[in-house]
């Protein structure tokens, strides 16, 4: 089940929406989404109402994606108990909220972002929430702010590295890694371009000595070849308001994302495989696309007559770590 925004965050968003014309928010959300679709970035978000439109339109999906990544890390990393978080390109604070909800050991929260309007809404949303007593949000360019930021046990960049110019991205990754005491999580849109940035980031981090926690069950080069790409998905129910805001017909949205999570120290044995698409099931077999611990990708067919393996594979879902394949 995808993670939903926690009630206190929904309530804070609702509070900010009071007295604001719905039509204005819808218009702004559409303009922002068009900018993103055209390859533009968050600089188009300039006012309080822009930031509110962005938060209402995008936070549910981004929150679900980041929550799924954190769940994947926690499943494989038994010692994962960060006390401090640094959220880079934090925007309205989506990843911070997702981390605060999922990781109870977190006590210190730091965010940084270049965008004043998004920083403003993040602080409005966090105000009065007991979890964020120790919250520091610096405004400025990540490449500048990171050089003076404190290290954190967990560093997250959610849907942010794609907004940094190609020739500055490696420097950004390097700075984020330097500030990581334990785990670094980078999440991008689940598009071929987002996936390619994750692959480059992963390659760079492995060369810097990082250990891959998820999603890859190995540290070898990604076995997928274009036009294939590694991505995962979260299906979220859409409220009536959200449907209206996004001008959408269907009562759900599929958020596709790519990610990599790495750590400073190795975390035990990798799982046997990761499920790379929703397995298909027929009367005779289950077919699952897997990324395997030996660095290969394969389609595994499990015949129904192999009762035990078939029963296990029936439970596999896109994105799952598979502990054993018989
Ligand atoms: C698509 S938003 C994602 C926001 C947030 N992480 C989330 O998941 O909802 C990208 C964010 O990266 C920030 N950003 C882009 N380039 C940046 C830079 N050079 N320095 C700091 N922040 C940057 C933008 O201002 C924006 O808030």
Q: How would you characterize the largest beta sheet?
A: 8 strands, mixed
How confident overall, as mean pLDDT?
94
What radius of gyration results from the CA coordinates?
Answer: 20 Å
CATH architecture grouping of the largest domain: 3-Layer(aba) Sandwich
Instruction: Please tally the helical runs, counting DSSP H or I stretches of 4 or more residues.
Output: 10
Give the count of structural domains: 2
Shape: globular
The CATH superfamily of the largest domain is Vaccinia Virus protein VP39
- The first-to-last residue Cα distance is 27 Å
Helix content: 25-40%
CATH topology of the largest domain: Rossmann fold
Strand content: 15-25%
What is the string of SSEs from the N terminus onward? HHHEHEHEHEHEHEEHEEEEEHE
CATH class of the largest domain: Alpha Beta
Bound molecules: S-adenosylmethionine
Structural class: alpha/beta
The beta-strand count equals 13
Low-confidence stretches: none
List the helices and strands and how they pair.
Elements: H1 7-17, H2 22-37, H3 48-76, E1 84-88, H4 94-102, E2 108-113, H5 116-126, E3 135-139, H6 142-148, E4 152-158, H7 166-178, E5 180-189, H8 192-207, E6 211-214, E7 232-237, H9 240-245, E8 252-263, E9 273-275, E10 280-281, E11 285-292, E12 297-303, H10 307-313, E13 321-322
Parallel strand pairs: 1-2, 1-4, 2-3, 4-5
Antiparallel strand pairs: 5-8, 6-8, 7-8, 9-11, 9-13, 10-11, 11-12
Bound molecules: S-adenosylmethionine (SAM).
């Amino acid at each position: 089940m995808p993670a939903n925004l926690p009630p206190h965050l929904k309530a804070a968003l609702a509070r900010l929406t009071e007295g604001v014309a719905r039509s204005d928010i819808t218009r702004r959300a559409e303009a922002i989404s068009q900018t993103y679709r055209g390859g533009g970035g968050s600089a188009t978000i300039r006012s309080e109402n822009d930031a509110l439109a962005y938060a209402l339109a995008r936070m549910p999906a981004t929150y679900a994606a980041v929550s799924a990544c954190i769940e994947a890390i926690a499943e494989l990393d038994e010692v994962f108990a960060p006390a401090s978080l640094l959220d880079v390109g934090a925007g309205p604070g989506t990843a911070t909220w997702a981390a605060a909800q999922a990781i109870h050991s977190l006590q210190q929260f730091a965010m940084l972002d270049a965008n004043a309007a998004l920083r403003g809404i993040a602080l409005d949303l966090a105000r009065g929430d007991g979890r964020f007593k120790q919250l520091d949000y610096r405004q400025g360019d990540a490449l500048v702010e990171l050089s003076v930021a404190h290290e954190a046990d967990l560093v997250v960049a959610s849907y942010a590295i794609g907004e940094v110019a190609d020739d500055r991205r490696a420097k950004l990754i390097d700075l984020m890694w330097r500030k990581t005491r334990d785990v670094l999580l980078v999440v991008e849109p689940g598009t071929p371009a987002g996936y390619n940035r994750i692959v480059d980031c992963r390659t760079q981090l492995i060369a810097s000595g990082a250990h891959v926690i998820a999603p890859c069950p190995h540290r070898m080069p990604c076995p997928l070849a274009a036009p294939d790409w590694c991505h995962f998905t979260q299906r979220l129910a859409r409220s009536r308001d959200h449907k209206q805001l996004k001008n959408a017909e269907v009562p759900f949205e599929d958020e596709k994302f790519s990610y990599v999570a790495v750590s400073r120290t190795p975390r035990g044995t990798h799982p046997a495989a990761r499920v790379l698409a929703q397995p298909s099931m027929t009367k005779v077999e289950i077919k699952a696309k897997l990324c395997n611990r030996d660095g290969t990708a394969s389609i595994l067919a499990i015949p129904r007559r192999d009762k035990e393996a078939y029963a296990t594979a029936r439970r596999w879902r896109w994105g799952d770590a598979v502990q054993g394949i018989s």
